[in-house]
Amino acid sequence: MTEQTQQTQQTQTLTPGGAPAPESGKVALITGASRGIGYGVAEALVARGDRVCITGRNEDALKAAVERLGSDRVIGVPGKAHDEAHQAVAVDRVMEEFGRIDFLVNNAGTNPVFGPIADLDLNVARKVFENNVISALGFAQRTWKAWQKENGGAIVNVASLAGISASPFIGAYGMSKAAMVNLTLQLAHEFAPGVRVNAIAPAVVKTKFAEALYEGREAEAAAAYPLARLGVPEDIGGAAAFLTSDQSAWITGQTLVIDGGIFLNAGVG
């Protein structure tokens, strides 16, 4: 274990004053959270005192993520997000372990193809929608029935800037994230007033998932952003923490764009 990892484990659930963060009494289920944005969300929620279940398809990576989070408030359930059996196991495990699911963060997603949409293999398109949209709906349905219908809570869907603008060469991904934005609207309307449902639409965030978009040219990629940098998982974690907090109690059905200002360039040129 590196010194940095040890420090992360020691400080993950500490308050600014150095004392362990008191338990919030709330519980979150975060999909696709062994690394990247999902892990950044888990860090933020654990740090404020939530108990958290994270999911991921790679069991070893998931175990390592639970260890890095460094808290007995965290469990991991391995599996593929689009697998209905996995969805059932994950929700059941959270209810057995923690007795409630206040927050659901639908982060799991895939983008297995790069190229013009005119040449898109329709089977690949189906796979993208199954992983990115249908899985989110499945988790939302199960969380609703297990806890939120009777007790309330909040859902955050991780969409993308690609879902609210043209997304050349990642068109299938962009279409799926546009569907995620609309799923957010549908769930927000149907689950009100007890459950708030919002989405986050990030631009490029420095993760393994998005590496192809900036690897070897990060400075060039970052120069396009008015804030002069790419996003990091902590940026999204902070937004998810806000949208699952009492500070956002009158916000539902919204998509929060987190893009370092790059959308400001849309009307330039």
Structural class, by secondary structure, is: alpha/beta
Rg calculated over all Cα atoms? 18 Å
| Largest sheet: spatial strand order | 3-2-1-4-5-6-7
Distance between the termini: 50 Å
Order of helices and strands: HEHEHEHEHEHEHHE
Shape verdict: globular
Mean pLDDT level? 90
Largest sheet: 7 strands, parallel
* Count of separate DSSP helical elements: 8
Helical content, roughly?
Answer: 40-55%
**Total strands:** 7
The amount of beta strand, in percent, is 5-15%
- Runs with pLDDT <50, length 5+? 1-12
In terms of topology, how is this protein built?
Layout: H1 3-11, E1 27-30, H2 36-47, E2 51-56, H3 59-69, E3 74-78, H4 84-98, E4 103-106, H5 122-151, E5 153-158, H6 171-191, E6 195-202, H7 218-222, H8 233-243, E7 255-258
Parallel strand pairs: 1-2, 1-4, 2-3, 4-5, 5-6, 6-7
Helix pairs in contact: 2-8, 4-5, 5-6
